[in-house]
Every structure is written in C-alpha cells, then in structure tokens.
Amino acid sequence: MRARYGVPLGITALGAAGVAYAAGFEARSFRLRRVTVPVLPQGTRPLRVLQVSDIHMVCGQRKKRRWLQSLAGLRPDLVVNTGDNLSDPEGVPELLDSLGPLLDFPGVYVFGSNDYYGPKLRNPARYLLEKMQGRHGLNGNPPAVGAVHNPWEQIQDAFDAAGWLNLTNTRGRLKLDGLELAFTGLDDPHIKRDRYDKVAGGPETDADLSVAVVHAPYLRCLDAFTADGYPLILAGHTHGGQLRVPFYGALVTNCDLDTDRAMGLSTHRAGGHTAHLHVSAGCGTNRYTPIRFACPPEATLLTLTPHD
User: Fold this and answer.
1) Coil vs helix vs strand at 78
2) Could you tell me the pTM of the whole model?
C-alpha cells in the first residue's frame, strides 16, 4: 500500500507546498528592478522614471501599501502608472493612501480593464485555452455581461488633482529638468477602448523625447507606435506571466504579445523602425488568483540615458 500511494501523495504534497509558497511568500515578496534605456539626446543628464503597474489593490494589503509608499524614497523624476490599480471596488482609499507619497512627483497614467471593472472568478486554465485559440480579452471573445463597475472616477480625480497627466487616448507634455517630454497614451486595448486614430501622427518633433504609454501591450498598438517612430513604449498587464516555469519563462501573456517579452526590456520592430519596449510584471494579482511563481511582484526604476 505504501508503494502504491507514495508517489501520488508526494506529488500532492509538492503541489500544496508550491501553492503555499506562491501565495504566502512570493506574491508578497516585492522587488524593485532597475533598467537602463538609452533614449535621451546627447549631452543631457539621465532621468529616473519609476513605473508602477497592476497594483490590483485589495482592502487589507498592508505590506503592499507600505512598500508602495516606500518607493517615494527613490525620488524619481517621473512616475508612470500603467493601470489596473484595483481588484476590489472598496479599495480606492487604500490605493490612494499607498500612492500618496508618489503623487508629489510628476506623473502620467493610463487605465486598464481592472480600473473600470471588478474581477470575476475564472478557471486559470482558460488563459492557456484562450491562447491556443487566439482569443484575448474582448478581442475575439463575447462582450462581458454583468460586470461589476469600479469607482474609477475617484482614482482619476485624485491623479488629476495631483497634476498627473491623464493619457487616455490623448497626448500630453511635461518639462523635467529642462527637457521637454511628450507622451502619447491609449486606453486599454484589452477591452477595445484604444483609439489610435485620435493620437496618430508620431512623436512631437519639438520634444526632446516622446514616450508611448498603454496598459496592455497588444501588437496592433505596439506596431502603430513603433511604425510612427516612438523610441520608447511602456506597458503592463501581463503580470510577467504570473506563473513562470523556471528555466523556461512565461506560459501566457493574456494578450497577443509573445511570451519571451512578457516582462522586462526588449525591442519591437514595425514599419522600418525599432522601439524600446518595457513591460512591467506589476506588483499585484487578481484577488481570486493571489499567487505568483518565479515572478515576484515588482516596480521598475528606468534610468533614461543619452543614446549613442
């Protein structure tokens, strides 16, 4: 009897230990990743850009709140929030408390689907199935029915009051340390709210740097930004795959971006141009799947330096 049941029991115990690690430790093991991106004009000093993404705030997440507040100690030149701030309709006060110290710095933001709508319980295996079927978000899926609406207007009002630029299908500019930075943003393509025709035209020629910002890195958006000549694109959404296989990487991205670029700095090519693409793995999870494996929650400090 011991020989018959030893292996299944061992596998079950190993699986339980993995889930306990992924939910109890790694999902709360917050990290800061540092990346250097050569995109500034020659002769300028580096700029420090803090990207926060996919916070998915749930009431009671005290450790996440303290960690987010501590990021203000980095004294960034700019904060970029790439969306999905909520995973709890009641979480707005705790979200704004978490980001309060960062709101003192210049910032820009776009929203993701989880800012607009509350999460729903779903089988994680569906992400793999949808990947195999080429279906992502509302891109090929039927429209969501009975979705919970989040109080995203409260987040927008607080960000706007702090002076952060709302880049929802629009453009904006900031002057930082004598540099003119132009931004072009899209609403979330995961739920088909992106309207590139409203912002088309490419970088602003009188700016020192033009940056493209979007929540979900769908290829149609990356192709459009890159073909228009943007040197830098910032996105989130993927959670880095959330559950990564050691020595292999992400299994899904929850969009049509390839899994090799599920997180971190890479390049994207389209229309004869090449852009730097940074995809944040984010610092949260859907409240119904509060686990991460081989993919710690993160924020990223991007140091923008002069290009060659």
Assistant:
1) strand
2) 0.91
